[in-house]
Amino acid sequence: MDAKYFRDRAETCLRLAKELPWKNPGRFQLMDIAEKLQKRAANLEAQEQRASPQTAQPVDRPAQ
Length: 64
Fold this sequence. Notes:
The chain is mainly alpha-helical. It is 69% helix and 0% strand. α1 (3-19) packs antiparallel against α2. The mean pLDDT is 87.
């Protein structure tokens, strides 16, 4: 699973939470789950960045 998967699930939880009444405990549970999923996605992205070495991008030079 990648970060996009967790971000998509977090968005789904937030969308469902917004549909529930303000005082519904399920609303807060869904919002907590969404926050955890977003943190997990951020952690995965950070791990991916550390794992992949920073490579220099070649510069396109005009032909002479």
